[in-house]
Amino acid sequence: MKGIIVFASKYGSTAEYASLMAQKLHTEALRASEVPSGAVFGADFIVLGSPIYSYSILPDMEVFLERNKKLLAEKPLAVFVVCGDSMWNPKVGEGGNKNLEKLTRFLPSEPIAVAVLGGRMRMEELDEEDGVKIRAFRERTGREHTGYDRMEEGGALDFINEIKNWFKSSGT
Predict the structure, then answer these.
(1) Which of the listed CATH numbers 3.40.50.360, 2.30.40.10, 3.40.50.720, 3.40.30.10 matches domain 3-170?
(2) Is the pLDDT of residue 95 over 70?
């Protein structure tokens, strides 16, 4: 089976997961903005990944999904999102599963596997605009202006196994 990992990443957490998945699934990881036109057509399955940024997936992923909607409808799709804190504001319904819905609502079919993975944020790596937004958010919520690292290789490996198990059970 030939697959591809298509991802969008702003500060690197999603790219890191995509690279790990590509290695374990013996395929390649491609940025959503750089996927060659024939790559989707030639893939037997596609894994899609995006961080949640400003309450949504990254625009590059949205554009990729819209451009390839017809082809994606013909492929098994697996989906993962990367969140800094999977339950930072449950009062408004945000959290890992809510964030996952932000990506899956763009899909033409039900994914074969899904995952919510923790991310990483280093305050010193943020661009000026994001730094201001994060500091303002932290002040509103009474949290320190520190970064965090919630990367979880184990969760990514579980997701990969879920994909492999789907293929085994489907006889594909």
Answers:
(1) 3.40.50.360
(2) no
